[in-house]
Amino acid sequence: MDFKFIKNISKDQAKDATRLALQSSLAAAVCYYLMVLLNMPERFVGILSAVLVIEPSIGNTFQQAKGRMLSTVVGALIGIVFVVLIPWQLGVILSLLFSMFIINGIASFKPEWRYGVVAAAALALSSEADKFDLVVERLLSIGFGVLVGIVITFIVWPDKAENRTLRYVRKALKNTLDRFKIEFENTRESKNKTTSKINDNFSTNINQAKKTSNSITFQDSGKIKQLIKSTEKLFNSITIIQRVAEKSDNNISNGEAGIEQNSEKVIEKACEIIEKLANKKQVEENEMSNFSDLIDTTKSNINLKTEDKQTNMLRSTFMFGLTEVKDSLQSINKNLKEL
Q1: How far apart, in whole angstroms, are the C-alpha atoms of residue 166 and residue 278?
Q2: Distance between CA 95 and CA 152 in Å, rounded?
Q3: In angstroms, how far is CA 235 from the centroid of its own chain?
């Protein structure tokens, strides 16, 4: 067996794996003990539900729980309808055919629905005499297992979806900071460093943030989603400024300095602010105000009245990029303070 993948496991991944393993093992043991104590039937599906409902965050677990129960009900209803209305083996065949088709079709968009095939198959293969009793017992067992799984995620090493989202956003901000520094160095060096890996890491982290934010259950996700949008906007603004810097050999400040020289102070200050935001440090209002003034001053020094249309276009684009940086950082700082 190849264990090389272990070297690539990050600290956060190891932490999530340990949390999931601990919560799942406890959920299985507690569910079995309580079902034996209460003399409940269908212990297998109860334990299975308790384990499979557990997700990295409490919000994810609730979403899984709803999907598990709904898919079980749908699977049970399909199983009953076909087996009761159509006797002999034909009813079993049609029940399996339609239930697997419907549930797995929905599971393509909602993976938590895959669990419904267990209920559908069990009902289709059971005897006609005990079908309704089996439905009730199975629903009770699944519901009990789901409840145990939810309680375990609340009590044992809980992690909220909003906290996970913020961690991914801060990782994306660190990626943004790394790219900002490299791209600015590239304006000074003849041999440019690549940022493809940083760009890939940013895409991974920001997409994970979006995905996790959809699982937020007990808090308004509006501000967090706005935070994600602002982080993307900031990352894209770097592309605007960098491409202008790469394409322009002209000066933007009345012929006194090149684009990279005019933007040096802005970029250095932006990096300071991004680094603080990414590392959970407070950004004071006067820092944001001074940064805003610095951008306004830089923009006011840019000469837009030249005879070269391409130069005018590049300078206007550069001003737009500066504004995007300012607006993005102000929005990120505001949303982080309100969360």
Answers
A1: 10
A2: 35
A3: 17
Closest CA to 35 of 176, 134, 145: 145
> Which string of b and e fits 278-288 if b means at least 16 CB within 10 Å?
beeeebeeebb
Q: Domain boundary at 155, 189, 206, which?
A: 155
Find the radius of gyration of the CA atoms of the chain: 28
Domain membership flag for residue 319: yes
Same domain? For 185 and 269 the reply is yes
CB 329 within 8 A of CB 288: yes
Residues of the domain holding 124: 15-155
What is d(CA 259, CA 313) in angstroms, rounded to the nearest whole number?
13
- Residue-wise DSSP of 84-105: HHS-HHHHHHHHHHHHHHHHHH
- 96 and 223 fall within a common domain: no
Q: Kindly give, in sequence order, each residue whose CB lies less than 8 Å from that of residue 217, ignoring residues fewer than 6 positions away.
A: 58, 59, 62, 63, 161
Asked whether the beta carbons of 327 and 234 are under 8 A apart, the reply is no
DSSP class per residue in 167-229: HHHHHHHHHHHHHHHHHHHHTT-SSPPP-HHHHHHHHHHHHHHHHHHTT--SS--HHHHHHHH
How many domains are there within the chain? 2
What are the tens digits of pLDDT across the range 4-15?
667 777 888 889
Instruction: Give pLDDT tens digits for 40-72.
Output: 988 988 998 899 889 888 888 888 788 877 887
